[in-house]
Amino acid sequence: EIKNYKNYWQSFVPNNDSERFQKWLFAILSVHSTYESNVRGYKALKDWTQWFNKWDVLTQKLIDSRIGLHNNRTRYIKDFALDYWSNPSNFQKAKNETWKECRNRLVKRITGLGFAKVSFAFEMIAPLEVELACIDTHIYQAYGLDQTRDSSLGKDLETHWVQMSKLWNCPPA
Q1: 92-112 pLDDT per residue, tens
Q2: CA distances in angstroms from 160 to 85, 111, 121, listed in the order given
Q3: Which end of the chain is more exposed for a tag (fewer CB within 10 A), N or C?
Q4: Between helices 115-125 and 154-167, what is the axis angle to 10°?
Q5: Strand, helix or coil at 52?
Q6: d(Cα 96, Cα 59) in Å, to the nearest integer?
């Protein structure tokens, strides 16, 4: 089962900066969004060449997708897109840093994304290598916890999740 899982996810690994940008975009759109809304928003924006440097077009695509929070999403996506395309390698793990160090660096850099969503982006970008976990409400619930009440446990949950994944030779994603 784990072998099938690894083969499946390996087929989604991005091969270039544009595909990596799309994974980041999906993660940004997932903030305060249902899966269905996230997919709708992503489908509207995945061809980023249609809206990059045309911020009114970006805003209208967000409005038309009905994903919600279009003012914040426009700002976050615009800021991210300009930063990303100025140097895409800034959004990759450096050889001299751990996954956590990379994630923490990017949390400080990317407006609108916290630990969970930056981890989520890396789960999509490097699903078989990443040593992070998107500790969101679903993971809190799997541990029998409430994200609002138990948010201080997030980093401990991630550590446990990653350790258990290693024990089972299964990627955390």
Answers
A1: 999 999 999 999 999 999 999
A2: 35, 27, 20
A3: N
A4: 20
A5: coil
A6: 38
